[in-house]
Amino acid sequence: GGARWLCRAGRGGRLGCGRQGGTLRMAPCLPGNWPAFTIRYRHAKSSYGIEVRNPAGVQRGIHAAWLDGTALATSPCVVPLQEDGQEHLIIIELGSATPAPASDPAI
């Protein structure tokens, strides 16, 4: 659907997500005045809500990332895709790159 199109359109562009094998590579690049955006991505029977937050008002750089509450590496930020028929949540927080915190983000 539409989210798949958005991710394809954003590859290397403003949205900065693209499928690579069994993963989704995240590298958002957007105007600094965008506070956030959300999209949905469908992979097989699974669905991914992707929320990109920009509290620092930056254009790029991943400060922290989580998949279903579990911290992900941020450089590069690669999300493993699952075919489990479940809903998943990816949260990306833009800002200075630092090691991902172990705790869940405030949802």
What descriptive keywords fit this protein?
107 residues, mainly beta, five-stranded mixed sheet, three-stranded antiparallel sheet, 8 strands, globular, disordered N terminus
What is the element layout, followed by pairings?
Elements: H1 2-10, E1 17-20, E2 23-26, E3 36-43, E4 46-53, E5 62-67, E6 70-71, E7 77-80, E8 87-94
Parallel strand pairs: 4-8
Antiparallel strand pairs: 1-2, 2-7, 3-4, 5-6, 5-8
Within the largest sheet, what's the order of strands? 3-4-8-5-6
The major beta sheet can be summarized as: 5 strands, mixed
Strand content: 35-45%
Number of strands: 8
Low-confidence region ranges? 1-6, 8-13
- Structural class based on helices, strands and sheet pairing: mainly beta
Helix content: under 10%
**Overall pLDDT, averaged?**
84
Identify the overall geometry.
globular
Rounded Rg: 13 Å
What is the count of helical runs? Answer: 1
Helix-strand string: HEEEEEEEE
Measure the end-to-end span. Answer: 25 Å
